Amino acid sequence: MPGYRKLGRTSSQRKAMLRGLATQLIYHGKITTTETRAKEVRKIAEKLITLAVKEKDNFTTENITVKVPQKDKDGKRVKTVENGRKVTEYNDVEKTIQKDSPTRLAARRKILSVLYNVTQVPENGRRKRSESKKVCLANVLFEKHAPKYSGRNGGYTRMIKIGPRRGDAAPMVLLELV
Predict the structure, then answer these.
(1) Is 19 helix (H, G, I), strand (E, B) or coil?
(2) pTM passes above 0.85
(3) Distance between CA atoms of 145 and 141, rounded to whole angstroms?
(4) pLDDT tens across 154-172, in order?
């Protein structure tokens, strides 16, 4: 007997489906799915959250100086002519960055290898590329979920049975983060 459910799919299809469900669970906080799928997604999500909780404070902060191009009132770069060439003007800006330790970086890469990329669409529903932005789910786990679950020893998800599905009477559940 394998240690996982096959869910009537090939291995690549099953992996893609579980990755998609885990991504949506982390991003939205809850999903509605069948009971057997929820039990498999729960395993994946709990491991990712545990990884984030272990590495949540494992970074250093550094102050760096960054060259940022000057911009005019229209948002275009300010250019001056030097030796017959147009040259962009730059300002030096101090920024504070977080530098991951090697173990946190490995955890971040492990999380990103499991979860898919998510693009956040604006609230008004318009799917313009310029208004959409990518969401890093590793940051969501480290900054939002890890502090919330730092006092817990597992058990980050809850399954609530919501009855049979209309078409085939498959038992449906609501899987949510506690």
Answers:
(1) helix
(2) no
(3) 5
(4) 999 999 999 999 999 999 9
